[in-house]
């Protein structure tokens, strides 16, 4: 039930922000394939497999990235 809900939410999203994950651990990493929206944002200290698909990539710790965005 939880995975089905996650799949539905991701499939319906216009924008998806993925943060603080290498996208290497399944099954959660596989959820990205259901995203069909326009804007994908990836926030992670290291590169991820999704970086090439992303509209915006921030290679920094998620807390730092969100703090900077909140300050703007």
Automatic annotation (TrEMBL):
Q: Which InterPro entries match?
A: DHS-like_NAD/FAD-binding_dom (IPR029035), Ssirtuin_cat_dom (IPR026590)
Report the residue ranges that make up the Deacetylase sirtuin-type domain in this protein. Answer: 1-72
Q: Provide this UniProt record's keywords sorted from A to Z.
A: NAD
Matches recorded under PROSITE patterns? SIRTUIN
Q: Give the source's domain of life in one word.
A: Bacteria
This protein is called NAD-dependent protein deacylase
**Organism encoding this protein:** Subdoligranulum variabile
Lineage in the entry? Bacteria, Bacillati, Bacillota, Clostridia, Eubacteriales
